[in-house]
Amino acid sequence: MPSPVALALRCLLLLALALGLHVPPAAAQTVRLTAALTAPGRLPAFPDPSLATTVTLPDEWSARLSGPDAAVWYRVEFPRVAPLDSDDLMALFIEHVCSNLEVYLNGHLVHSGGRMTRPLTNNCNHPQLVSLPSALLRPEGNTLDLRVAGHPLAEVGSRDRAGALSVLEIGPQSELSLRHARRTALQVWAPQAVSATLVLMGGFMFVLGFITRRESHLAYFGALSVGWALVDMRLWLRSVPLAHSGVEFLLCAMLGFIAWASVQFLLRYAGVRHKGVDMALPAQCALLAVSLVAGGPQRLHAVASFWYLVLALEVAAAALWHLRAIRKSRALWPMAAMLGAVALAGAVEFYSQWTGHRPLAALLAQQVVPVIFVLVGLRLVQQHGRALHNAEQGKAQLEQRVREATAEIERNFRQLAELRVEQVTEQERKRIAADLHDDLGAKLLTIVHTSESERISTLAREALEEMRLSVRGLTGRPVRLSDALGDWRAEVISRLAQAGIQGDWEGPDELPQTLSARAYVQTTRILREATSNIIKHSGATHCSVVVSISNNDFQFVLHDNGDGIAPVPEGRLDRGHGLASMKSRAKQMQGQCLVESGPGYGTVIRLTIPLDRAVQPS
Questions:
Q1: Tens-digit pLDDT profile for residues 68-79
Q2: 23-27, 197-201, 323-327, 538-542: least confident range
């Protein structure tokens, strides 16, 4: 999509080409009348020619006359021009007349533009094409009388609305109608289309900026667009239900409002807000209105010209301030180009207002500013849409982050709750362990030393060992893996020796890891159960124990040369409570306990425990 600057340049080029398109008629077909006799127009017909003066067209007659019934007569003479096509009519083309006129051909009224008394019909921006009936044309010495009514220069805020008459052209209607249509399109239809666009776009942006206070520059630009459209509307609106003085007062007062909106838009768009400016601009609008009332209708042009200069300087200062504020932004050059085009158009308009000349550049300047307003408005809408899209994306990302944060908080809360439960559980375990050690342990120790029965003393000693093992598991203190291996080796070999079974132990001596209390207790009980089964049921004379660490697993292999486990119909070897208990304990540590046995082969018990579940680095 082309940038607003490119669009502005294209529109300006098209306007220049359109305004510059002029197909000059053949000399024999069209007559240009650049001089005329003129006289005051209070009489119902052209006055005595001896009282008339010769003027050059275009003529700003309003600068010479004044009064509520300001009007002037113009008289031109021309020879009859025969069109190439015998069926074609002759016509009079008037590019600019302000404010209204009547046309008389050889003393006969052939055209009336509307009301000739106040309120006058406004034809200032409407080119006129008047058909000249062939029956009224003479072979030689045709006379055109034009009675033009308008407003004195002193009573209008802009020279464009003061009484004036442009060059007259007489020729075939077929040729002049093309020029009339082109001029009407440029001076009436194009301003109407642009004004309607400004009203719609400006109203939308004003509401948008009013609702979204952080984008107040949109509201000011909307007010600027609507205000400019209302001022331009007078250029092509022929009838207004108000007195001329009231309309001119409203148009001039509107300029203060437009300057207010322009300055605030430039400042707010650059991110600048000044309390002094916020208070001074409304006061200036009120002062402008008071000065217009105090000056009165007869000095309206002088007062308005003074305010034009003041307001133009204010807007220029705001534009420079805006460019200075955004000098490090990428939007500097596009905005500078647009503001430069507006400044150039303003300079051309000031020249036209000061000198009274209406060159082609003056017409172009009147079209440039509203077109640039439309382009700036489109750019602002585009930026707002992009900002809204980014805001939606940011909102979605923020919602996602909030959901993630909420999930993290919930997860942390659960972890804290679990940690609290673990802390309470740990405290309770320690309390139970202390009670077992202090109460039950002391009583069992007393039985061991005081009992006269060897069996009771042995059972008490075994119960005391089981209690100590349970207390160690409850306290949760880790055990060095090397110390655990030493305890297990001493206990297993000692128990096998007491039962008359030769035991061999093979395994590493020094290991750097520490074993968790839970893993130590569960492994101890598995080894005790396995040793008890070998002693009670195997009938073995030899048992080997191999300890190894491989593939991140901690493994015991107990192999005896006993009778083995007799086969059963179901083919299961863990039908007894002891083997099932061993496998269950191994499973709790995410490990496994496998039993292999056969007649004459003995029994092999393989206990495998994952290291990451059983041990911790020291």
A1: 668 899 999 998
A2: 23-27
What is the span of the domain harbouring residue 510?
A: 478-616
Report the distance separating Cα 275 and Cα 477, nearest Å: 72
In tens, the pLDDT along 192-245 reads 899 999 999 999 999 989 888 788 999 999 999 999 999 888 777 888 888 888
Cis peptide before 40 (omega within 30 of 0): no
- Tell me the DSSP string of 482-501: HHHHHHHHHHHHHHHHHTT-
Number of domains in the chain: 1
SS3 call for 192 = helix
Is residue 115 in a domain?
no
Asked if residue 599 is part of any domain, the answer here is: yes
Least confident range from 109-113, 285-289, 560-564: namely 560-564
CB neighbours of residue 330 within 10 Å: 7
The whole-angstrom separation of Cα 94 and Cα 129 is 6
Q: Which two tokens stand for residue 584?
A: 């269950």
- Cα 159 to Cα 162, 163, 201, 301, 462, distances in angstroms: 5, 8, 29, 8, 122
For 157, which DSSP code?
A: S
Longest dimension (CA), the chain: 166
Q: Alpha helix locations (H) across 237-331?
A: 244-269, 275-295, 300-325
Please state, in angstroms and as integers, the Cα–Cα distance from residue 421 to each residue in 414, 417, 428, following that order: 10, 6, 10
Instruction: Assess contact for 247 and 240: CB atoms under 8 A.
Output: yes
| C-alpha distance from residue 570 to each of 190, 214, 293, 411, 577 (Å) | 101, 82, 118, 47, 16
H/E run at residue 507: none
Q: What DSSP letter does each residue of 202-215 carry, written as one string?
A: HHHHHHHHHHSGGG
CATH number for the domain spanning 593: value is 3.30.565.10
Q: Report CA-CA distances (Å) from 603 to 530, 542, 555, 564, 565.
A: 10, 11, 16, 5, 7
